[in-house]
């Protein structure tokens, strides 16, 4: 979802030929997760890079069988309980470790459902009713929307914290229930890896309001200071395409918090992407220019 704004800004990339899958990281053989889960200041647990990650590189491929099509609270609660019981113990532990937020009304309603008989007349074990309630709340907090409707819980992908200026973009394949995350800029070893839970090209006030359901206020550099790290990453990619030594000390641009400022930021992205697209035909054995452009 995150790259829609950047790729949908105009027709200037219409002549660009996307590299073959063989030129990109191969999803089918991906197995090396370049991150570890550890405490993150003020965010509980987070995912941190265990080595430098290049732009466009796959960070995670995650599959799931934990998906529901919204069918009302009672049916959804039944499905959640059944899905949990069908998992291996290590998968159950991952689910149980996820964060959960909910308002009191929804928590009470979920707890009530699990205290009642199921649609087939059987009852939920009394000792598991509270656990099922928590699992449902965790699913709501960490599930990813699916294009055909409903939601899916990706147990490893759910460990990424939010930033309005993320360094990881992702796609969800609804046919295969597959989640693929790729770095949208270089991620340094030890740096926390973030995704965005919401569309990024909104004003700060709208973004903060959208995040209330997760129970936190975003304090990323984009929200607190208007810093746009992604623009700086694009400028570095442009320098590489022009065979210019990138200015590693370049300060990211700062934008205000109005609709006009958002438009200026997007226009800047388009300008740099247009310049990049004009360079992509040059010989480049490792395809780095093409990869920079695709994932920008």
From TrEMBL:
Region (Disordered) residue spans: 276-296
One Pfam family of this chain: SET
InterPro entries in UniProt: H3K4_H4K5_MeTrfase, SET_dom, SET_dom_sf
Compositionally biased intervals (Basic and acidic residues): 276-290
Family annotation (SMART domains): SET
Domain SET: 33-198
Gene Ontology CC: nucleus
TM regions (residue ranges): none
Protein name: SET domain-containing protein
Organism: Xylaria grammica
